[in-house]
Amino acid sequence: MADELKLEEFSRIAQQIEAEVARVIVGQNEVVRSVIICILAGRHALLEGVPGLGKTMLIRTLAEALDLKFARIQFTPDLMPSDITGTDIMEETEEGRRVFRFHEGPVFANLVLADEINRATPKTQSALLEAMQEKTVTVANRSYKLEPPFFVLATQNPLEMEGTYPLPEAQLDRFMFKVNVTFPKMEELVNIVERTTGADIAQPNKVADGKQVISMGKLALSTPVASHLSEYVARLIVSTHPEDASAPDMVRQYVRYGSSPRGAQALIIGAKVHALLEGRFNVSFEDIEAVAAPALRHRLLLNFEGLAEGINTDAIIKDVIQAVRKQPA
């Protein structure tokens, strides 16, 4: 009975979050759902799309609806690691002594927007790695703990490649989901214009706080997953590797290296949150397949032939799912 009460509370808050986001963001339901899953799971997300599709507005809206401390970092080629983490600054005390004091950078927030993350140099990009993985920041041999909850939501433009530094695979793997933000439909575009060109622009109401987000994440992690579903996820991950006997033809032909074990973790955790958002306390095959594309699309490395032919990793993921379904249990 306690689980049912917790589940009802989870569903109520999640519905309120989605409703508040819908007051500001038009359409993009899959994008909004994927980002909310990452936040409730306590993980990070990478949003990819051309400028002007509302990626920054979505993240800012979520921060306001969840009453989280928000920080936006605009990544540029001249951005330094200390601009993100903070630095020691010499100050003079009332007694006249000079001491070093640590001044926190923008990464010391609950929700950090890393805008156009691929515009910064690899050295600066790597400044986020420790924060994303360990939830700590190390400056001058001293470590500082980041207050929970902590999420990095990064954006990048897939078209403009001049003056950019593509994220290395090791850093891409830290993002639970890679979310593709697509161009709105005509009806949605009309709605966007009507909402954003008038005198009154909708503002989200606060519907939760950091403690509730953490509690919702704990409930999600405690959601049971049947052993045959864990085996299904394992078979999916193994089948993305071209050298494995279970790999379908599309993987053998176009993939250089398949998903890491973090892909399996992203599938399981994402499926748990997805099930709760659907009002269920048990994970199904549908939940796993619903999060398969955002969880795996950035974890499949294409070979030269795949890149030359412009193969979409989402098509490979669909092929893997169909192949694994046909495998004997």
Structure summarized in a few sentences:
The chain has 329 residues and is of the alpha/beta class. The chain is built from 16 helices and 11 strands. The strands form 4 sheets. Strands 2-5-8-1-9 form a 5-stranded parallel beta sheet.
Task: Looking at this protein, list some descriptive labels.
329 residues; Helicase, Ruva Protein, domain 3; 2 domains; two-stranded antiparallel ribbon; 11 strands; globular
Question: Would you write up a description of this structure?
Answer:
With 329 residues, the chain is α/β, with parallel strands linked by helices. The chain folds into two domains: 1-222, P-loop containing nucleotide triphosphate hydrolases (Rossmann fold, 3-Layer(aba) Sandwich); 223-329, Magnesium chelatase subunit I, C-Terminal domain (Helicase, Ruva Protein, domain 3, Orthogonal Bundle), CATH 1.10.8. It has 16 helices and eleven strands. A five-stranded parallel beta sheet has the order 2-5-8-1-9. Strands 3-4 form a two-stranded antiparallel ribbon. The longest helix is centred in the N-terminal third of the chain and has 23 residues, at 2-24. The chain is globular. It starts with a helix and ends with a helix.
